[in-house]
Amino acid sequence: MSSHEPDWIIKRIADDGNVHIETTDVLSAQRMMFEAESLEERRRIGVEQVAERLRPWWEPMKHNPWAPKGPDDADALDDALMLNIAPPKMDRADALTGLDRFAGAGSLDACTDALVRTFDRLQPTAHGIILPTIRYTLALANPSLRTERDNNAAYTGFGGNPGSIFMIALPSDFNLPRLAPMAAHEAHHNVRMTYEPWIPATITVGQYLAIEGTAEAFSVELYGDDSLGPWTTMHTEDALNAQRARFREVIDKTGDPRPYMFGDWAAAAFHYEAQGLPNYIGYGMGYRIVRSYLESTGKTATEATYIPWREIVDGAAWLWEE
């Protein structure tokens, strides 16, 4: 039996050959889908090409209690659409224009390069961290991803499960240069959350802040301040200062920490109780805490990747100022 790999999987290695990366080209499958004129044909290609390539990401969601659920009679494409990718009914011209923008920017290659750069710099194996094969992809998003809530950023990523990184975007002048930094951010999650795993019974607000803050600081270390997304930069220093006392009170809080990361807007969608917090406040707080820790200790974000969350929080002088 042939062991030939599909031509839509690109293989790379990092960390002196210890980290194996497999990038799945979903964008070319989406192009095939949107080049088809009839909705019926687009749906067929969506099932056979788009959904099949995305199987490593949507299949695990079917068993995740926090994930959205598809219809009872769902086919593979319905399951893949839970990832908020572009649906077959999306305006074809808009979809093809977006796919052209990804291609023109070399986004898939740039993001894969960012993964290699991240794992080479972090050297997880030297820190006793053995990662599974890293499966990565980037896909054109559903137009619903664009919202005023995050200043129309229209890109997002998921890297919390080591071995899996998934990103979607509606390409724009703003987000195209930020896709590679986001890939680095999500790859950092793969390492950090192996070093200090997310365990539902013990996860704290402080640990979640350290997860996001170190990932943002690492991305900035590689790509500069201009690479930050709006979630981290939308709140002023005064606004962050005003939240310090509140976050000091909950830093050790266990249970679901998401209200303190995403704020009240997501309470209904994510099924948690609103806490009277601004949108995405945890991203700004986490980054500010980690920046303070780095300033206080002289460490780099790369070094902080392997520092326990408690030490980072305790060493962030800014957080404890009255």
Task: Give keywords.
alpha/beta; 322 residues; globular; 50% helix; 16 helices; single chain; five-stranded mixed sheet; 5 strands; 2 domains
Helices and strands, in order, run as EEHHHHHHEEEHHHHHHHHHH
Beta-strand portion reads: 5-15%
Which ranges are low-confidence, i.e. pLDDT below 50, for 5 or more consecutive residues? Answer: none
Major β-sheet profile: 5 strands, mixed
Task: Determine the structural class based on helices, strands and strand pairing.
Answer: alpha/beta
Any idea what the radius of gyration is? Answer: 20 Å
- Principal-axes geometry comes out as globular
Our count of domains comes out at 2
C-alpha termini separation: 67 Å
Q: How much helical structure, as a percent, in the residues? A: 40-55%
- What average pLDDT do the residues reach? 95
User: Strand order within the widest sheet?
Assistant: 1-2-3-5-4
Please work out how many helical segments DSSP would assign: 16
Q: How many strands in all?
A: 5
Topology (elements, then pairings):
Blueprint: E1 9-14, E2 19-24, H1 27-35, H2 39-53, H3 55-61, H4 76-81, H5 92-105, H6 107-122, E3 134-140, E4 155-158, E5 164-169, H7 179-195, H8 205-223, H9 230-233, H10 237-250, H11 259-262, H12 267-270, H13 281-297, H14 301-304, H15 309-314, H16 317-320
Parallel strand pairs: 2-3, 3-5
Antiparallel strand pairs: 1-2, 4-5
How would you describe what is shown here?
This protein is of the alpha/beta class and about 325 residues long. It folds into 2 domains: about 10-185, no CATH class; about 195-320, no CATH class. It has 16 helices and 5 strands. The chain has a 5-stranded mixed β-sheet. α1 packs antiparallel against α5 (about 90-105) and α7 crosses α8 (about 205-225).
